[in-house]
Amino acid sequence: MTQRMSGFLRGAIDDGDVASAIREYEDRYGGQDPEAQERRKSEYRNFAKLYFDLVTDFYEYGWDRSFHFAPRARNEGFAASLARHEHRLAYKIGLGPGMVALDLGCGIGGPLRRMVRFSGARIVGVSISGYQIARARTLTEAADLGPLADYVECDFMEMDFPDESFDAAFAIETTCCAPDKFAAFGETFRVLKPGARLGVYEYCLTDRFDPQDPEHLRLKADLELGGGLPDIAYPHEVDHALREAGFELLEAKDVAVEDPSCIPWYEPLSGSGLSLANFRSSRAGRVVTHCLVWTLERLGIIPRGALRVSGLLNMAAAAFARAGQLGIFTPMYFVLARKPDSSPMRGGS
What we know:
It is built from 13 helices and seven strands. The longest helix is centred in the last third of the chain and has 21 residues. The relative contact order is 0.17.
């Protein structure tokens, strides 16, 4: 455990000053005030890059290589639930051999690699974080996936790909980071071929969210800062942005409540932590990790500021768990959309 953590944040921050980076992130973009929210949107490139460069090592350590939630069937393992969630998405967008798909916000490529193996399609992942792209390439080379998995460092709000480049696209809890959903979906519409499908798992507030409730507002602010989110939309806002971008909506539902018999998506964060498979993400595991980070930082083994990053993510984990328990938030509002076979070219940029 200590050996694995000793490499945390080495090379992730451009100038190596993790303490200054996390201080800038929290001080500039934190809080419930409208000014902070506006900065998260107007400065989203800096906001997103700072966030993902700071948290990626912690994510991989605590959640493995697929950075997303999933409902889990009884007697189903944690890793198996993540894989099933990804395979379902690949099936919904019709991935298969000979196709070229786009992964919007690929992280370090965990879902991308699994979906390549499941479908036989070639997938190109994009991320605004050069650190994530470098890590994704290293892991993909080790997986020996050859030309089927590729990565490009770019902003999915403004991509360099030609019009009508891809046969399908997907986003797993990533378009929630877009400052303007219409623009993000419009840019995706541009690079998709006519008839192509887009599948999205989106962070959304539910109709239980009360904007007059102080606890709900605090949780929303904690989710935004701790999750790298400019704002959190309602499902109808996501639907509207997709339609305005030119897509046909084929399916839209909250997968988190689809099967009441499933173990809730937030259980790995709020559970007892007795499962070895997801101990590090549990409450007990997070306490252990935080204490170890404190020790390693004091000894100079990991950069100063790492403890503050750990504290930010612990705050986020508590907010995710509580918001899930209250039913005011879902990380898996699923939308399946299609670019019409014959339509005028539209774009968000």
